[in-house]
Amino acid sequence: MSKKEKITLLPRLRFPEFHLIGAWKMNTLNSLAVKVTIRNKNGLVTRVLTNSAVDGVVDQSDYFEREIVTQSNIDNYLVIDEGDFVYNPRISSSAPVGPISKNNIGRGIMSPLYTIFRFNNSQNDFYEQYFKTNLWNGYLKTVSNTGARHDRISISVDKFMEMPLPSSSDKEQQKIADCLTSLDGLITAEDKKLSTLRAHKKGLMQKLFPAEGKTVPEWRFPEFRDSSEWQSNTIRNTCDSYSGGTPVTSNKEYYGGKIPFIR
């Protein structure tokens, strides 16, 4: 691509105070960060972490039902500090090329199958948010292969560290990070409210329906407290049932009829 053909890198939305500061730049990951290669010699660190596509960096003991790692094989694991980033090559529906997450829960160790890197600038919340998007996925797809098990991305460390990343001024990056992080906080708070409401509803259902073997619910609305006991009935006596043959889908004579057919 010639200089004349070079694409100007500008976001669709921009905070007003940054409208006049020019276009963003593209840098490679290896110009912004270094790969972490510290091994867990003598098993000094015992806290094993994993990188989940949904939950990010979490304790492995909280994520899996059983211990995946034993004390005897953690010497080769990589030490990850709080603030480091980690790439998990395991692909899933929510992470088609694997997730990249920031470690916000403290020091631990991770599988050597992961790629851990540390930004030169500790003010890197912008990239924590960027890696939650799919804007970087295209590069990994072009320079990697799916593993033999078809559930893992295979990519060299050098190619991974050459990943192109956008950058702007520190102030603009921090403004974007603060905005998106505050939204994350609101989403988390709403999720907690939703979980509380679901638990509340579940508890109400246990009280408002008769328990097995009972004919009266534990709780009743005031206007029904003097009503008779509930009765037990069968579905046969309560509902009308319908059945019929399954039409041959290749026979167009059945098309356009008045009876809906779902398959």
C-alpha termini separation: 50 Å
| CATH architecture term of the largest domain | Alpha-Beta Complex
CATH-derived topology of the largest domain: Adenine-n6-DNA-methyltransferase TaqI, Chain A, domain 2
Q: β content, as a range?
A: 15-25%
Rg, alpha carbons:
28 Å
Q: Residue ranges: pLDDT <50 for 5 or more in a row?
A: 1-5
Q: How many DSSP H or I helices?
A: 7
CATH C-level name of the largest domain? Alpha Beta
- Helical amount among residues, as a percent range? 25-40%
Question: Order of strands in the sheet with the most strands?
Answer: 2-9-6-7
Question: What is the averaged pLDDT score?
Answer: 90
User: Structural class, from helix and strand content?
Assistant: alpha+beta
> CATH homologous superfamily of the largest domain, by name?
DNA methylase specificity domains
Shape: extended
Spell out the helices and strands N to C.
EHEEEHEEEEEHHEEHEHH
